[in-house]
Structures are given as structure tokens and as C-alpha cells.
Amino acid sequence: MTLSQFEIQDINQTVLLWLDEVRKRTLIAMQQHLDISIKHDARDLVTNVDRDNEQFLNAKIRSYDSEASIVSEEGFGDHQKNMQGNVWFVDPIDGTMNFVKEQADFAVMIALYIDNEPVLGWILDVVNNVVYHGGPQVGVFANQLRLEQPNNDALSDGIVLLSGARLLYGMFGYDKIAKAALGYRVIGAAGPSFLRVISGRAVGYSSKMMPWDFAAGQVLAKTLGLSISDIDGRPLDMLSSNIVLVATNRAHRDILMLHQS
């Protein structure tokens, strides 16, 4: 189903209002005591803010789009089996460790796919009060500023962002990729890393991600003409974890070659 320009704009403006409210709630919560729990290990945290934001956003989505399905991180979504119809992805706090320890480099992310096609994505940089949003029918914006496609730089011409744990153990050729790049960084969160790539501050980013980690970033990256796939060059599975690679077209080719060598 193809939405009209009016429908796209209505959805976009509605979600921007939700995100403005979520930002206010998150900033207030940051000044208060955080209820922090461990999910799988000491590096995998969840807070009351993650849960509260997800419940708030999921309720908004269900009220606005009652027939939709929701894939979200903290257990308040649906057990989705396919990508038919309207499927929303919600990451209520992306980069929870950064949120807890640094209060920087974290994001709130939402995406809408219809019949497995990317429609709209939103990445809220909470601290800097910037929402990166858009999709293939409208382009990509940082608040009201329209973004252009980043320069098609090679891996050797720019900074690459990588998963720290997998870089440390030389997995997926990350050690070779880091050495081939002009420089490398570890941010520790998907949303802020995607933003560096789509804004041209990095030539690529790769990490293991769940669907809510990459859904919004994929919408924005594809709209800007960037390449995104798994680390073997295949399309991403929208309902399972992937080793995601997003990069300029030249850096994407460079990284795939290094991974496969």
C-alpha cells in the first residue's frame, strides 16, 4: 500500500509530537533516581525510563494505528511473525549503558514499515534536541534541515564505527576493517552511530543489532542512497538479529571485501 504525501506528512508530524513529549519525560527522569536492572549480563542494562518510554510510545501507536503490529525491545510489543501490514519498531532508549553512565550518545528510535517496505524512520538525539526523520517519499531531515547524500568516500578516507566487543576479539574481520580505515571509533549505541554515517561524519558502521536497533537507521540510510546489508552483503532480516553494515557505497564494498578475505 502506497501512502499519499498528505498521509506521510500526517504520520511524520504525529510521531514528532510524540518524540517531543518523550524527550521531556526522559530529561526529567535523568534528574531523578534511575531504577536500573540487568537483563542478560552486567553490560546489558534496562531502566525504568526504557520501560516507561516504550509503554508510552506503544500506547500512542496503538491509538493512532489500531491495526498495526509493534516490534519493541522491552516486551510490550507483539510477537511478530511476518512483515505484512503496518509494522512499527520502537527502541525506547538505544544505548542504555551510555544513558546510565554518560548521559550522552543515546537515542530514542521509531520506524514504520508497510508490507516490509521502509516508509518512515525517526532517531531522536535526546541531549542535543535533534530528530533525524524521513523516508523515501519525503527525504531525510535533521529537525527542519534537509540532509543531502553524504560524500561517497572509501573506507580509507574516513572513520568507521565498530562494535567494541567484536573488534576486541577480531570477529567478522573488524580488526582488518579498523586498520584499513583512516580512523575508527566505538560509540556503543546504534542510533548515534547511524547518525554519524547519514550525516557524513563516518563512512561506515557495523555491529550486531536487533530489529529495533537498525529499523529506523535503515529507512534513513536507504533514503540517502547509502548501502545497508548484513556483513555478508545480504538484505537484513527485519525480525531477527543481524550483523549490520551501513556505509557509503564505496566503503561498503571495501568492508565486504575485507570481511570475505
UniProtKB/TrEMBL annotation:
Residues bound to Mg(2+) 1: E73, D91, D94, D213
Pfam families recorded: Inositol_P
GO biological process, one term: signal transduction
GO molecular function: inositol monophosphate 1-phosphatase activity; metal ion binding
Top-level enzyme category: hydrolase
CDD domains for the chain: IMPase_like
E.C. designation(s): 3.1.3.25
Keywords: Hydrolase, Magnesium, Metal-binding
Cofactor(s) demanded: Mg(2+)
Binding site for Mg(2+) 2: I93
Superkingdom of source: Bacteria
Gene3D superfamilies xrefs: 3.40.190.80, Fructose-1,6-Bisphosphatase, subunit A, domain 1 (3.30.540.10)
Name recorded for this polypeptide: Inositol monophosphatase family protein
Native source organism of the sequence: Leuconostoc gasicomitatum
